[in-house]
Amino acid sequence: MRIALLAHLRHPVARPFAGGMEAQCWALADGLMARGHDVVLFAAGDSDPRFPVDPVIPVHHERSFPELEHRGDAGLKAHVDAGYAAACDRIAAGGFDVLHNNALSRLPLERRRLAGVATVTSLHVPPYDALRWFVSDSLVPGHRITVTSEAQRRTWWPEGAPPEVSVLHNGVDPAAWPFRERGDGGAVWSGRIAPIKGTHLAVAAARRAGLPLTLFGSIEDRDYWEAQIAPQLGGSIRYGGHLSGDALAGEIGRASVFLFTPCWDEPFGLVAIEAMACGVPVAGLAMGAAAEVVGEAGHLVPPDAGPALAQALAQAIGDALAIPRTVPHARVLRLFTRDRWLTRCEDLYARAHRAAHG
């Protein structure tokens, strides 16, 4: 198939990945091309040049409009909207069999645009007001919508989702996150360093449990980093940088427990299955889809424990350490592999294409 992939524009679709959306869009382009599809990635122009990139904007907007995401900046909104509008026009005229829309933009969801090309939209976020109405109005023939978890589907459609909506769990390549039979006795945390990711909770829990902890990831919120994380570094708590690929997989895989601390309704939690693929059990918060993703591969605590939360997380760390490493690894092989995810995507593309062409 000839497939257009439309990405979020805050960061480039390139290593080291800023977050799960960039990682999954990269894996989608890479996997579909390996399966023989003709793929064009519509993304920021500084995305990975190994892919055929049609730039939506010249460079990712965190570079040209730094730290303005979610702040209602009119200049950023106009810049992004103009890029997406032109890109949608090029996609409509580009002879594509299907568009896989991973953007956080209302524009690909407009009915007049959906009429031009079969579309699969993957929702990676909770039901923000800026998207909610457009999503509900976009249920037309030739459009399929996916969410990353049952928990996310319930959040978007608490009274039951329409038949055009399905759960598409994220997946990882187990070869890229190799299994290790034993850990080094320490804890690890990975993700975007920002309040909603709960980095500070991981630090507090590791200290309470008496385990060394290494943090990995991009520093998304500089004020949060300087006020709550940087002062905690030293001794048993260290920052390992923003790594990717084999380097990050090696660091994650040598740990004995992974700390997963979302402070929002996390739609999925890609970092958790990356660690699980390596055989690392998970301790963390039961927020959003965490319980659905982690299952028997970890121990989670409710987020409403108040002042006792650090102690509850420390106890969860101890419980998770007792889980055999084969358990998280087996869960990923059963439910969350990249091949399983790509096959589901291909099926959705075919369904959307058939519905669009009657």
Task: Give a quick summary of the entry.
With 358 residues, the chain is α/β, with parallel strands linked by helices. The protein contains 14 helices and 13 strands.
What do you see in this structure?
The protein starts with a strand and ends with a helix. By secondary structure, it is α/β, with parallel strands linked by helices. A 7-stranded parallel sheet has the order 3-2-1-4-5-6-7. Strands 10-9-8-11-12-13 form a 6-stranded parallel sheet, sandwiched between helices. The protein is globular. It folds into 2 domains: 2-171 and 337-356, Rossmann fold (3-Layer(aba) Sandwich), CATH 3.40.50; 174-335, Rossmann fold (3-Layer(aba) Sandwich). The model has no long low-confidence stretch (mean pLDDT 95). It contains 14 helices and 13 strands.
Any key phrases for this structure?
alpha/beta, Rossmann fold, 2 domains, seven-stranded parallel sheet, 13 strands
Set down the secondary structure blueprint:
Elements: E1 2-6, H1 20-34, E2 38-44, E3 53-57, H2 61-64, H3 74-92, E4 98-101, H4 111-114, E5 119-123, H5 129-136, E6 143-147, H6 150-156, E7 165-167, E8 187-190, H7 199-209, E9 213-216, H8 222-229, E10 237-239, H9 245-253, E11 257-260, H10 270-277, E12 282-285, H11 290-294, E13 298-301, H12 309-321, H13 326-335, H14 338-356
> In terms of structural class, how would the helical and strand content be classed?
alpha/beta
Name of the CATH first level of the largest domain = Alpha Beta
Question: Number of helical segments?
Answer: 14
| CATH architecture name of the largest domain | 3-Layer(aba) Sandwich
- Beta-strand content: 15-25%
How far the N terminus sits from the C terminus, by CA atoms, comes to: 18 Å
- Assembly state of the chains shown: single chain
Spans of at least 5 consecutive residues whose pLDDT stays below 50 are none
Query: Can you say what the CATH homologous superfamily of the largest domain is?
Result: Glycogen Phosphorylase B
